[in-house]
């Protein structure tokens, strides 16, 4: 079990990542706020608790790997990498600009800490499977984590990979489905409904765990459980809220890749400040 | 002779030899291993062979993951699927990060003569050449195929290799050193030059032999590396010639002919003619010779192209 102190610290970290999102998106610039914010807790649990990942030794062959198959949410990964000191904080202000190191989608050549090129949806699970096979072949204990979107599950290649990962009995791979129930043009139920997500993965041979994707204790518990499962891969279906933490962006497809006005930005920062005060209050009570 | 005549067999055996030398070499297959001959690698290295099923897209991105973790993956399929079905995966998972993935495009061109247009790859070199970082190779015979496989151990970045299904005559000199990027003069001549790749190399030599009988002297160059093309060598080989022919078992849009003209741009040079497939899909035929004749991919066509240029 993870201690309450750890969870409180991680909650604060996730909140800092959301502040970083607002810094990167700024005012008048488009940015993938919704699908980045829905991942804040999952990314926090991975980078700041679960993964064997040394920010000072990025090429360690025994490191755990993080693949963001839904590459458009890379802002949340940039936030984590900045918090870890892998990328300089000042780069956050230069995201998606010529000369900056932070591209619109994950680019391993330009950005330290990025493990693969993703963004053309549906490819991350295949890449993760290849990594997991190579790590197993070399007898390494490293694990591979890959995050997919629920809208992304429409990509056929992803199910090819799901079959392959089971066919090779890969158990050093944990997937996440960020089930925020929204995609670029609206709610998944309206745009392209994909029902029975857990049943689909189960029928492909995977171990499936469903959690609240904003509950850090639940995420860590699921990650621990996944590590113990042998002979098959695990997918954690995480129910999340697109745009989580910023009231007007929550469950609003307009902020899939939306622009914040000055007023909206001010309001968003104010809401996160309030969440910070609430977290601090809870901490002092303990 | 170290290798059999068949290019696929040469590929399979050379891959096994490379696997013995380097434990990081792995092979992926999409249910065509008996044909591509990756089955030879499977027999010797079952733990380093991954049967990915009939799922080429996943195969290519999985190879990207293997390469990211330090392996040298060789992926296999028919050329038409290896280039077309996997375009986006090659572009994004492999070419953008410049990974050491090797793609075997087997049964390329019209060499799968019976299976018809869905299985005949006439655009693969164009598709591959258009992608930054991709190296594009088209061997002329089994000897050159084996040399290429050896060279793929250390070559940096993704590579596409175009493999012919049928037995082809040997044209590559047994003791000639091979390196990726080098074009090789197989016959000297002073009137015209034929740049050829794949099966068209032996046809070009045959054409040059026939042209010599009527007093036409024809240089024949095997351009087995289409990209990166040795522009300097190509310009030198074309210099002073009265005619330039590019011969390929591939659409004339974007393949060897295009590579030759691109390389010669800005230089003074003779007129150029293409012997290739004229913007059409393939067709089923009874044998390889029949289908090559149907598409005008013959020694006679090459000789005719040379004569036409010299007559003008």
Structure description:
The complex is a heterodimer of chains A (286) and B (312). Chain A has helices at 4-25, 33-37, 40-50, 74-83, 124-137, 156-167, 188-191, 197-203, 216-228, 262-285, and strands spanning 30-31, 65-68, 144-149, 173-179, 182-183, 186-187, 207-212, 234-239, 258-259. Chain A has 286 residues and is an alpha/beta fold. Chain A has one domain (4-285): Thiamin diphosphate (ThDP)-binding fold, Pyr/PP domains (Rossmann fold). In chain A, the strands form 3 sheets. Chain A has a 5-stranded parallel beta sheet, with helices on both faces. Chain A has a two-stranded antiparallel ribbon with strand order 1-9. In chain A, helix 1 crosses helix 3, helix 1 packs antiparallel against helix 10 and helix 3 (40-50) crosses helix 9. Chain A is globular. Chain B is α/β, with parallel strands linked by helices and 312 residues long. Chain B has 2 domains: 7-162, Rossmann fold; 184-311, Rossmann fold (3-Layer(aba) Sandwich). In chain B, helix 9 links the parallel strand 8 (192-196) and strand 9 (218-222). The longest helix of chain B has 15 residues, at 7-21. Chains A and B meet through helix 5 and helix 6 of A and helix 4 and helix 6 of B.
Distance between the termini of chain A: 18 Å
Q: Report the uncertain regions of chain B.
A: none
CATH fold description of the largest domain in chain B: Rossmann fold
The CATH superfamily of chain A is known as: Thiamin diphosphate (ThDP)-binding fold, Pyr/PP domains
CA-atom Rg of chain B in angstroms: 19 Å
What's the average pLDDT of chain A? 96
Q: What is the domain total for the residues of chain B?
A: 2
Task: State the fourth-level CATH superfamily of the largest domain in chain B.
Answer: Thiamin diphosphate (ThDP)-binding fold, Pyr/PP domains
Query: How do the helices and strands follow one another from N- to C-terminus of chain B?
Result: HEHHEHEHHEHEHEEEHEEHEHEHH
The strand line-up of the biggest sheet of chain B is 2-1-3-4-6-5-10
Indicate the CATH architecture of the largest domain in chain B.
Answer: 3-Layer(aba) Sandwich
Distance between the termini of chain B: 44 Å
* CATH topology label of chain A: Rossmann fold
| Beta strand % of chain A | 5-15%
Q: Reading side by side through the largest sheet of chain A, how are the strands ordered?
A: 2-3-4-8-7
What is the number of helices of chain B? 13
Low-pLDDT segments of chain A? none
**Structural class based on helices, strands and sheet pairing of chain B:** alpha/beta
Oligomer: heterodimer
């Amino acid at each position: 079990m993870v201690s309450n102190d750890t969870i409180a610290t991680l909650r604060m970290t996730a909140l800092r990542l959301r502040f970083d999102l607002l810094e990167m998106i700024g005012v008048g610039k488009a940015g993938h706020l919704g699908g980045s914010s829905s991942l804040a807790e999952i990314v926090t649990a991975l980078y700041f608790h679960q993964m064997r990942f040394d920010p000072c030794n990025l090429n360690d062959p025994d490191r755990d790997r993080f693949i963001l198959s839904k590459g458009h949410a890379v802002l949340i990964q940039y936030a984590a990498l900045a918090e870890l000191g892998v990328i300089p904080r000042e780069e956050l202000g230069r995201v998606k600009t010529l000369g900056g190191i932070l591209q619109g989608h994950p680019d391993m050549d330009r950005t330290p800490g990025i493990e693969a090129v993703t963004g053309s949806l549906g490819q991350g699970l295949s890449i993760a499977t290849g990594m997991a096979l190579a790590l197993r072949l070399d007898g390494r204990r490293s694990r591979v984590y890959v995050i997919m979107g629920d809208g992304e599950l429409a990509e056929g290649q992803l199910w090819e990979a799901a079959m392959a990962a089971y066919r090779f009995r890969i158990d050093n791979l944990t997937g996440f489905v960020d089930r925020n129930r929204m995609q670029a043009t609206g709610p998944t139920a309206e745009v392209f409904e994909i029902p029975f997500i857990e049943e689909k993965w189960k029928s492909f041979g995977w171990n499936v765990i469903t959690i609240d994707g904003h509950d850090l204790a639940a995420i860590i518990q699921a990650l621990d459980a996944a590590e113990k499962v042998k002979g098959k891969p695990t997918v954690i279906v995480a129910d999340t809220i697109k745009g989580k933490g910023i009231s007007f962006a929550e469950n609003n497809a307009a902020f899939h890749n939306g622009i914040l006005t000055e007023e909206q930005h001010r309001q968003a920062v104010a809401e996160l400040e309030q969440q910070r005060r609430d977290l601090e209050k809870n901490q002092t009570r303990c | 002779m170290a290798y059999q005549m068949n290019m696929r067999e040469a590929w399979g055996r050379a891959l096994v030899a490379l696997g013995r030398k380097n434990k990081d070499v792995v092979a992926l297959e999409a249910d065509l291993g008996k044909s591509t001959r990756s089955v030879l690698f499977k027999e010797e290295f079952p733990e380093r062979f991954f049967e990915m099923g009939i799922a080429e897209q996943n195969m290519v991105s999985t190879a990207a993951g293997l390469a990211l973790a330090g392996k040298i993956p060789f992926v296999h399929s028919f050329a038409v699927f290896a280039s077309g079905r996997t375009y986006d995966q090659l572009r994004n998972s492999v070419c953008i990060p410049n990974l050491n993935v090797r793609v075997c495009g087997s049964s390329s061109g019209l060499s799968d003569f019976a299976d018809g247009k869905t299985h005949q790859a006439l655009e693969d070199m164009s598709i591959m050449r258009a992608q930054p970082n991709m190296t594009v190779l088209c061997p002329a015979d089994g000897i050159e195929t084996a040399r290429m496989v050896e060279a793929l151990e250390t070559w940096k970045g993704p590579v596409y290799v175009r493999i012919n299904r049928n037995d082809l005559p040997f044209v590559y000199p047994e003791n000639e050193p091979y390196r990726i990027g080098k074009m090789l003069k197989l016959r000297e001549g002073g009137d015209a030059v034929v740049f050829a790749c794949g099966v068209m190399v032996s046809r070009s030599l045959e054409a040059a032999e026939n042209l010599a009988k009527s007093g036409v002297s024809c240089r024949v160059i095997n351009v087995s590396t289409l990209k990166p093309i040795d522009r300097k060598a190509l310009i030198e080989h074309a210099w002073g010639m009265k005619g330039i022919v590019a011969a390929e078992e591939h659409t004339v849009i974007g393949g060897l002919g295009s590579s030759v003209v691109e390389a010669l741009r800005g230089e003074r040079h003779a007129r150029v003619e293409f012997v290739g497939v004229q913007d059409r899909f393939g067709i089923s035929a009874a044998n390889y010779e029949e289908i090559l004749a149907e598409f005008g991919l013959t020694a006679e066509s090459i000789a005719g192209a040379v004569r036409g240029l010299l007559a003008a």
